[in-house]
Amino acid sequence: MRINFNTNPEKYKHxxxxxxxxxxxxxxxxxxxxxLFPGYELKLNxxxxxxxxxxxxxxxRLRFEHPEVQVVVLSSGKPKVFCAGANIKMLGGASHxxxxxxxxxxxxxxxxxxxxxxxxxxxYVAAVGGACAGGGYELALATDHIILIDDxxxxxxxxxxxxxxxxxxxxxxxxVTDKRKVRRDRADIFCATEEGVRGNxxxxxxxxxxxxxxxxxxxxxxSRVELMASTSDRPVDEIGVTLNPIxxxxxxxxxxxxxxxxxxxxxESIAELLIKGPTGKTPANVEEVITMGDQxxxxxxxxxxxxxxxxxxxxxxxIAVMAFNSIxxxxxxxxxxxxxxxxxxxxxxxxxxxxxxRVLKRIDLTSKTIIxxxxxxxxxxxxxxxxxxxxxxxxxxDGVFDGNNYGEASLLLxxxxxxxxxxxxxxxxxxxxxxxxxxxxxxxxxxxxxxxKAEAADDLGLITAIYDEIDWExxxxxxxxxxxxxxxxxxxxxxxxxxxxxxxxxxxxxxxxLTAWQNWIFxxxxxxxxxxxxxQYGSGKKANFDRKRV
Length: 550
What we know:
Strand order of the largest sheet: 13-14-15-16-17-18-19-20
Largest sheet: 8 strands, mixed
Helix content: 40-55%
């Protein structure tokens, strides 16, 4: 079954959006029979990938279509339950690869809420009533403020260790310790207790921010919304941009978008992504961008590239290599990149820049080898040049190729490459690349806006290797064949380690632990074996653990 990531509120089964002025109510009301796959029911607001696909879409729409929304209230549409977390039957029946990819996508979606909190002036508050367990509490943890109803039964919990023999590893433990700074011993108690924590203890331990009686809950929530809105710089009188359905034609070996083509070569285990540069003039002002809407090239390409990466993650698990190619005018891409930089304080342009940051992070976090090929006719400029610096290996053509009407390949730096799109480690890809050289920025800034040919780019350390026309195809073919021959597990570990040098952040911890510990635990018989906790869940039988510590 091919998973589709293209949805809209009219198709939602699990979420409702209600916008009233500067406040949006994002209501989780999961349809029990609306699972993405057969074999389980989504009871108690539990979720699967389909629920999170809708949430991801809703978050994007709140940012782009509703500039007037300053505060988003996340709540439940069901009585006595906020969210029971990821559906256990779904996890028990899913393939290992799907479980890990699901956890990764789930956390990227949570991160986008925190990104809106931190960078878009769109604040999130969780209004928690009833059980808030596992991934449900992780959802609340991603907001900026958690209000808990003090009714004697509502509480928060991360019961995975005690109940399922796995970890609250999709950001749960890390957000408890690093974001909320819960004391180590209390975090240990909390994560080892199936029933969780309620009332004053939840507040005292900083697991929630506010505890309110049922009779005063709506009043307290409204006051909190007003206070949070007062710190927002979102405009109250601007028109949003409608995110129309992405146009995608799917064939057996090709995904065709308006600004991107993906050729899937399953025999070689490689996906060739060809980015098409902009056509037509760069807008003269932001008003023209608003008129263009979601067809403004940087926004259209970001949406399509994001979808393509998710398609390859979930629907092409055996594709080992993503190869980025581009075609177009360097000057046209530079004009668009400079336009974004010049107008970055406008709410819409800010959102487009932040969206590109999230898309590039999703590429960084994808468990496939990434290569970028800079050839005659390529347009790796500014934010597209980030794909060069995101690559595990980057190859640049040297000289002019016969039968090619383009000039020499070039690489072009802009202000976008100097911190506009930070990685999960919160520094730029160039800063990560040149960790050993504190003078890297002083060395590279004079080259902004200059066409860097192969030898110059190589001398500056911006690429991995240069090849002339004679060696180009053969050297890249040999690299891909070698890469595909390696163990996918070893490569996942290798790439997750080499891509995120530099500072440790909450994001790098979350995804590092997801790649290593959660990946490992999800394959252990204690969790998924015939007598494992995930397999026995709901059967009335106790799990039978292998007691050896590893």
